[in-house]
Structure formats: C-alpha cells, structure tokens
Amino acid sequence: MDSAAREWVCDVATEFGFRRGWVKPLEIGADPWCFCRFEVLGITYEVHDYELSIVKQER
Questions:
Q1: Distance from C-alpha of 52 to C-alpha of 59, rounded to nearest angstrom
Q2: What is the pairing mode between strands 43-48 and 23-28?
Q3: Which residues pair with 38 in a beta bridge?
Q4: Angle 34-6-19 from CA coordinates, rounded to 5°
Q5: Do residues 33 and 12 make contact, with C-beta atoms less than 8 angstroms apart?
Q6: Least CB-packed of 5, 29, 36, 49 within 10 Å?
Q7: What tens digit of pLDDT does each residue of 16-35 get?
Q8: How far apart are CA 51 and CA 19, in angstroms?
Q9: What is the pTM of this model?
Q10: Contact indicator for 47, 12 with CB cutoff of 8 Å
Q11: DSSP state string for 1-59
Q12: Average pLDDT, the chain
C-alpha cells in the first residue's frame, strides 16, 4: 500500500473518531469508504459500505 492509500485509510478512521497516530492501515479497496481495514490498539476494524465493524480483537 502506498503512502497516499495509507493516508486515505487514516482519513476514514478519523471520521469514525480514531486518533490518526494510532491507526495502522492494513488494506484498502478502490474506495476506502466501500472497503478498508485498519488496526487501532490491537483491534482490527473493517469498513464496508460506510459501516464500521470489529474483525479481530487481541487479548
């Protein structure tokens, strides 16, 4: 993933209330509002069609 795509995922994550510095971009589709995946503090989140869900949570 290039730096522009990482920034785009971070932008989406901040719209959901996450701090930019805590976001670790993992995957991105053609439009991150349709699909992207990122990690924040050990929890993996996924955005599908403008909806946020938890995919994986480390203990």
A1: 20
A2: unpaired
A3: 25, 45
A4: 90
A5: yes
A6: 49
A7: 999 999 999 999 999 999 99
A8: 18
A9: 0.91
A10: yes
A11: --HHHHHHHHHHHHHTT--GGGEEEEEE-SSTTTEEEEEETTEEEEEETTEEEEEEE--
A12: 94
